[in-house]
Amino acid sequence: MKKFWGIIPRNIIKNKGRVFIMGISIVLAISLIVSLSIVGDSIIKNKSEEYINLGGGTYDIFTESNDYSLINEFAEENFLKTSIIETSVGICKVPNSKFEIEINGYNNIIEDKILNFKLLAGRYPEKNNEIALEEWILNELPVKYNLGDKIKLEYISQYFDENESYDLKQEDEFLLVGVLNYKNYESPLKNRAKAYVTSQFALNKEIYGKVNHRIYGVLKEKYSLNEVFLIISYINDYGSLSIGKNDAKIDGENNMNFLNSILSLLFLVIGTVSGIVIYNISNIMVTERTKEFGIFRALGASPKMIKSLVILEGVLVGVIFIPIAMVVGSILTKTFIKSQYINLGNLAELVYIPPKGIYFSLMIGFLTLIIGNYFPARRASKVSPMQAIFSNNNLNLKGHMLKVGLETKSSVRKKMSFSTNMAYLNLDRNKKRFITTVISLNIIVIMFFGVHYLINCLDPLSNYKEKFGGDFIIKSTSNINGYEMKNDKIEELQKIQGVKNIYKCKELNCSIEVPEKSITNTGFKYLRSIGELKEEESSTSDIKRYLFSSRILGYDNEEIDKLIPSVQEGDKTLDSVKNRPTVAIVQNINNKEYTDIKIGDTLNMIVPKYDKNGREEGVKNVPFTVVAILNSNSLGMSIGDVPIVPVVSNYSCENYLNLNGYIGCKIKCEEGFNFNDIKTKLNDSISDSKELTLKSYVEEYNKAKENNKDFAIMLYGFLTVIGIISIINLVNVMNMSVILRKKEISILRAIGLNNREVTIMIMSEGVFYGLASSILGSIFGTILTVIIYFNGRERISSLLTWSMPFNTIVNSIIIVTLICVSSAIIPIKSLFRKSIVESIKGIE
Questions:
Q1: Cα dihedral sign for 596, 598, 602, 606?
Q2: Which of 199, 214, 753, 842 could bridge 107 with an S-S bond, Cβ 3.0-4.6 Å?
Q3: Three-state DSSP class for 608?
Q4: Which residues cross the membrane (predicted)?
Q5: Planar angle of CA 159, 165, 166, nearest 5 degrees
Q6: pLDDT digits (tens, 9 = 90+) for 442-474
Q7: pTM over 0.85
Q8: Nearest in space to 240 (alpha carbons), one of 377, 25, 71
């Protein structure tokens, strides 16, 4: 018995050529799974880091109050997994600059990126009068400080006493113990650096009065945001609190859920392709050994021993090649993709594979090897030893099947030549192999349709200059009063030689009160879900207010004129928007039908109110009449998830909303301008403010072009690799078809079928494979583009369009059929190397 099982390693060594071919197929298939897992893991990590940087941390909700006991009570709520309390100390202005330092105390060391702090050097403060500062602000201070130095800071603290507030100037000396980095791209105060002190130091300052406290909380997994908002709304103590949510995290997690769904679908697709490849090559290698199994049976081996022998050989081949495939796939993928999470100099990191990739690789690899080896071995073990020895490895083709297959009643089949009918008959007798191969090729065609459709629809270079709006754009990250671009800055930019026109825009986050009659049932559900509508309020209250969070956009008259083609209803010229308290609106963004606002409706803009010193002191209602409704694609910019966007003139912003500053401007230059010269002057003009960023059309276009190229190369490259694997699978299938039918084909040659007719028969099989795969693939691929269109308008881009992909269908049919015919030609040469007599005798 031991000697019999010793055949396994000897067989592998003896047939190393065959095993090597099988190993190559395994390496290609498993490498593809590993590659997808690494690319997917990198994308998810990048997206996760992106939303953390965008929102300033992983917290779910936040609120603030000058009542510390209330904030502390909130921190103990059962729905919070963990929280951070931030206590305000004061704002320090850096001398001779626009930069500021915001000093806050924190009740524990920030971990798990609840707030997006990263310690770069030193440590977090542990004692009173110790401080950690953001790295960038150290370069802006008048004196160069290092860790261990003492820093004297003068700062203004805001205190609250009943309904009054007052400022107090203070000074303290701190010991610099840490240097940190803090990222919050949505923060409007880019000129303001964070300073970290102990919570106790901050609380000690309350001897002068109450200070502001803010809490950032992470919810327990079993609680949703909607549930938490509902719980809070029924706790009377929290009636004075305004609860905010981390929109960046919500959007990020929604996007990641969508990405995970796509990746899971890709794993299913690629796992199926890889499994079919491994299954077919295993099937081929085992079927070729039918004679060998007959000899084993003749020498006394039982059917069970034959099956066990074959399965163990397959497992051993898998043990050898699957780990190799995983390492090769990891190294190749990480060599070609760009990611901040991959260090090519670290060998352990270079060969690291995400757990999901390892799991799928092992499962698909060994499962398909076992199945691919078991079934042909099972068939071979059931036949008699003599039948197996004289079968020429072909157990499927029975002589009595030929007559029935050729005597067809089909009018199409009757018009076919004998060679073509024989090709059809062979495929009919090997339905399983035909179906699995067609499925493999189908998947490639379907994926090609999806990839081609997405790349064509999401081309960022289409009308890029028009979308960009100018040669340069200066954007402010702050729309807070006192921090936006001012008229003096615009005048300074206008004086730069080469600048022709500057188009200014304003922006203001606000709430919009919408009439009850203009809200849909979906809109009421939305308001209820975000805590803006309670059951008792909607049914019993005499005064009902329906508030939607939004963002007002203010444009120059020239920019308003550009919106005229997008007017769906109302004032087609938009002249009434330019100098009166009227508004053009975009509603039901991203196909979310929350409102049905009509021309003539009045919307109340709830905006901040400022005192004579420019300090915010509550809110005021400003009524605007709707005079136009715009197409949702009209703004040509990302406007987030807000349900309504009002567009007004800059005149209205200044005269009715007290919004004097600008969120940004578009700059058009004179013909033949010197790009580098103007860019340098613009950068010099805004260098004193971190809130202002400069983007140029040329650089952004080149960046978009490069990103688009990389995106297309990645998708088409991935598709090409899958295609190569499927073609290898197809060649193996065609080769197996010829090997298994050598005796039958030789008999056909002996009774008069010449080499040309044999070639036509084999090539006809390739044509059948090609037509079946491309036609079915085109049908399902077209259906996929329709699904992407309907789902993608909301999740990917509202600009998606759809039309029948006739060119893609024709190209797919031609290309796939040619590939299949070419694959069929490859094994034909081996048919004519031996004489007809040798082939009939089965001499190997």
A1: positive
A2: 199
A3: strand
A4: 20-39, 258-281, 309-337, 357-376, 434-455, 711-733, 766-789, 809-832
A5: 70
A6: 777 887 787 777 767 665 555 566 667 788 888
A7: no
A8: 71
